[in-house]
Amino acid sequence: MTSLDTALTAYIWADGSAVPGRHPESVPDRALRARVEGLIERMDAVTPGADATDLAAWADRTVRAFVAERDHVGEAGIRALSALLSWTWR
Fold first, then answer.
1. Out of 45, 54, 56, 79, which residue is the most buried by the measure of CB atoms under 10 Å away?
2. What pLDDT, on a 0 to 100 scale, did the predictor assign at position 1?
3. Secondary-structure percent of the chain, ordered helix, strand, coil, rounded to 5
4. Mean pLDDT by 10 residues, the chain (90 residues)
């Protein structure tokens, strides 16, 4: 797991919370937190379309396509971003 994955997981899950959220205090390194918040900000611009009949699957596809084009995010980071994106639209 990369430091970005660790930061995404900490930011979104904050000490193993049951619900994904936004916890900037969980990433004390300012530069890393800025990268995390930049990814999340770009994810906030995404809205589900007609292909989002299964919200979790849509979020996973969307995040994977998004990070493949822009960032080096591993599986842990993808899972965290997908959870946040699907939770946002529930």
1. 79
2. 58
3. 65, 0, 35
4. 88 90 96 95 90 92 89 90 93
Cβ pair 59, 21 in contact under 8 A: no
The whole-number pLDDT of residue 83 equals: 96
What per-residue confidence (pLDDT) applies to 7?
Answer: 96
SS3 of residue 16 by DSSP: coil
The CA dihedral of 14, 18, 20, 24, to the nearest 10 degrees, is: -20
Cβ(84)–Cβ(12) below 8 Å: yes
Q: Do the beta carbons of residue 4 and residue 80 sit within 8 Å?
A: no
Which value, to the nearest 10 degrees, does the dihedral of the CA atoms of residues 32, 88, 61, 71 take?
Answer: -10
Cα gap 41→36, rounded to integer Å = 9
Positive/negative CA dihedral, 26, 31, 35, 38: positive
